[in-house]
């Protein structure tokens, strides 16, 4: 590590990672590959890794690559479709696949079929206005090489061929349209996360502690961080000292960022949103659907609530989910406390939080409506995508908890951000990840950005540059602007990850 990180005082670890989710796992593996002698301690308040947002049942989207998620391509006031965010996410997902390919090729994770599989990604809409929008989206996206393989149709028979269930029982005269990307994937981030941590634990100078909660953290005069930890099983408390701290605790990141008291963390707030799935229990129905089919979100809906009929592989078994249905809870974590939200309100963030609330009344109205839904109401929403659905074939499953970022804004006072935000100290000694979607799918790019902020001097060295380019061959290049490189990269990663010309079986 650079001189900046070679602090004066004695430390227990070079790096402390808080939270055992996909973000901490990704950062831990990256750092250990870049600097093998690094000492790392990982603390998780639950008894298993990836039990919150990274878990397969809790994760609102698997394999986000912007192929089918319509909320990443909003229609502007002039009628054109904005694709900038979709292009960025698609490119970031290709970065993730390169990193995972490296892990597979080096034997650092298990067989790729345990965490990634090929599954088509579809967008599906009905009604004249929505069909016009989807066609404009298709025309705009296919100008970019990342989306050149996208297919589009307004032919009901073709849609039925792609996904029979969504057309069965639908009116013959209903105007529909769909896009399809055969390159789509389903990723079990829970399995991938646990794989990465299992590898980390086997390496020297890495310690992992479950059932341990971070109670406080404070910067020492020597530049190191004092982290107060409580063993939830024994009740023992101790202090650990580290040169660098990463707060990757999902919804629990905001309270810990506030405890750090760094100036850069002032003014941030959080708005918690819970979720629920309808899980199919009829094996015959599950076998008939092989796609992730995304539609348009309701007005005011948060990104995690974009409706989709979703084929997934969970614990080695094919599953079919619909949702998620949004809800509201004052908890910041699924296993959190109802006091999380009120405790997060501070003098420095109360104005942004109130302002964001006033500017998002549609979201408040939407959440109230969602909370009041009956089983029959949820079934009616499902029938828009699966007209022949019956209530007895589906059961309710609780998804994870998300905390959307609220940040200061000079014009509005506060804005609600639907994305992720890396907050880091000026000296790079601590960083926190706030927010949710698209999160896990772009974790590698997010952590590379963190390295650039907090380990800039190390990152500039020939050794780190060479290693990063070994892990991510297109590092520093744009796949969106290089058709040949995009094709070559996808061919290589598909071969290593064994997602060539396969479907969920």
TrEMBL record:
Catalyses which reaction(s): (S)-malate + a quinone = a quinol + oxaloacetate
Q: Does the keyword Transmembrane apply?
A: yes
Listed Pfam families = Mqo (PF06039)
Keyword Aminoacyl-tRNA synthetase assigned to the entry: answer is no
Query: Which UniProt keywords are present, listed alphabetically?
Result: FAD, Flavoprotein, Membrane, Oxidoreductase, Transmembrane, Transmembrane helix, Tricarboxylic acid cycle
The source's domain of life comes to Bacteria
Protein name (Swiss-Prot/TrEMBL): Probable malate:quinone oxidoreductase
User: What is the species listed in this Swiss-Prot or TrEMBL entry?
Assistant: Pedobacter alluvionis
Q: Which gene encodes it?
A: mqo
């Amino acid at each position: 590590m650079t001189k900046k990180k070679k602090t004066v005082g004695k430390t227990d670890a070079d790096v402390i990672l808080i939270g055992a989710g996909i973000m901490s796992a990704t950062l831990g593996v990256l750092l250990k590959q870049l600097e093998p002698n690094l000492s790392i301690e990982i603390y998780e308040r639950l008894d298993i890794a990836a039990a919150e947002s990274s878990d397969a049942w809790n994760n609102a989207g698997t394999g986000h690559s912007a192929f089918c998620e319509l909320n990443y391509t909003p229609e502007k006031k002039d009628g054109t479709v904005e694709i900038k965010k979709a292009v960025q996410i698609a490119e970031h997902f290709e970065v993730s696949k390169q990193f995972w390919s490296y892990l597979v090729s080096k034997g650092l994770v298990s067989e790729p079929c345990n965490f990634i599989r090929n599954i088509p990604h579809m967008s599906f809409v009905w009604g004249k206005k929505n069909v016009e929008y989807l066609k404009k989206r298709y025309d705009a996206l296919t100008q970019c090489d990342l989306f050149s393989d996208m297919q589009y149709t307004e032919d009901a028979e073709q849609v039925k061929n792609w996904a029979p269930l969504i057309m069965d029982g639908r009116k013959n005269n209903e105007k529909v349209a769909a896009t399809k990307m055969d390159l789509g994937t389903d990723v079990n981030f829970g399995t991938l996360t646990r794989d990465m941590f299992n590898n980390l634990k086997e390496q020297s100078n890495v310690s992992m502690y479950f059932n341990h909660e971070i109670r406080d953290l404070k910067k020492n005069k020597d530049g190191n961080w004092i982290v107060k930890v409580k063993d939830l099983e024994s009740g023992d408390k101790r202090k650990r000292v580290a040169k660098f701290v990463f707060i990757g605790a999902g919804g629990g990141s905001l309270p810990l960022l506030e405890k750090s008291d760094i100036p850069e963390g002032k003014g941030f707030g959080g708005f918690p949103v819970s979720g629920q799935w309808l899980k199919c229990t009829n094996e015959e129905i599950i076998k008939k659907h092989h796609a992730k089919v995304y539609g348009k979100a309701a007005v005011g809906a948060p990104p995690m609530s974009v409706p989709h009929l979703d084929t997934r592989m969970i614990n080695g078994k094919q599953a079919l989910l619909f949702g998620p249905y949004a809800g509201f809870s004052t908890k910041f974590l699924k296993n959190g406390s109802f006091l999380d939200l009120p405790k997060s309100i501070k003098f420095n963030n109360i104005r942004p939080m109130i302002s964001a609330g006033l500017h998002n009344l549609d979201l408040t109205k939407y959440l109230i409506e969602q909370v009041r839904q009956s089983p029959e109401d949820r079934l009616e929403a499902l029938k828009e995508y699966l007209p022949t659905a019956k209530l007895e074939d589906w059961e309710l499953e609780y998804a994870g908890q998300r905390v959307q970022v609220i940040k200061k804004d000079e014009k509005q006072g506060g804005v609600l951000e639907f994305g992720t935000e890396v907050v880091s100290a000026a000296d790079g000694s601590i960083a926190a990840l706030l927010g949710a979607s698209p999160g896990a799918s772009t974790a590698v790019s997010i952590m590379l950005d963190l390295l650039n902020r907090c380990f800039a001097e190390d990152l500039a060295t020939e050794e780190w540059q060479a290693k990063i380019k070994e892990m991510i061959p297109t590092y520093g290049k744009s796949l969106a602007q290089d058709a040949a490189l995009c094709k070559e990269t996808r061919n290589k990663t598909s071969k290593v990850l064994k997602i060539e010309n396969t479907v969920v079986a």
